[in-house]
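Deliverable D4.2, example record:
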Amino acid sequence: MDLQTIQAAKELSIRIIRQAGMIANDKFDKFIEVNSKDEFGDVVTEVDHIAEEIIIKQIQAEFPEHQIHSEEAGTLGSESDWLWLIDPLDGTNNFAIGLSIFTTSITLMYRREPVLGVVYEPMTDRLFVSVIGEGTYCNDQQIHVKSNPNFLKGNIGWIQGHKVQNDMRAVKLRNFIDIKFKRMIRLWAPTLQWCMLAKGDIDGIVLFNSEGDDLYSGILMVREAGGIVIDFEGNAFTGMTTEPYIIACHPDHKEELMSIVREGLN
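Output generated by the structure prediction step:
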């Protein structure tokens, strides 16, 4: 793993993610083109495409040998040890209805593991940056996952894939978590929830079959902030998978949150 490559990628990502975020900020709550994306009600806007083009062009110019996978453009370039995952507007549905909960996410993977995650929340000007082995930072201040002595009175983020819809196991678990904790948070902007966990603003995340370009930056954020990321069986979540089922929290709450998830599924 080339640390110089990661450092150069970090500097580039910070620069271009702010450029992309400015587009979303400028066009927020104004008349924009919104198109249906799939049969699940997901949408895509002109901002998705403009921001994506800004990011992809500059990555290709600086790292032409790297492969890129982006939310709208799909896979670009030849297979490589280095893979960029781009979500130009995570929370497009929120953006489209004038709800100011959305981010831009850039991840660099090396051999299917995240080594760099950069997430920008343009409406609050919060920049989250995580590099493997170097911690997680919000606007240059290091952040940490927090242990909550009153865990069951805490806030748990829920993330599910678009295709899950009203899968009965997901509905049952979601409702159980909603009842069990003070609040179940469902933002439809997954990267922001991962950043909130890394920052200590929420106490855990339960993710039900939600794989995509918005996943791996958040996983790195939480790991580097001192959190654990495990599957529903309690094993460390590593690599990439098409159907992830994930629990993330402070290590102090691993057993308790695992037990709650298992109870909610039974």
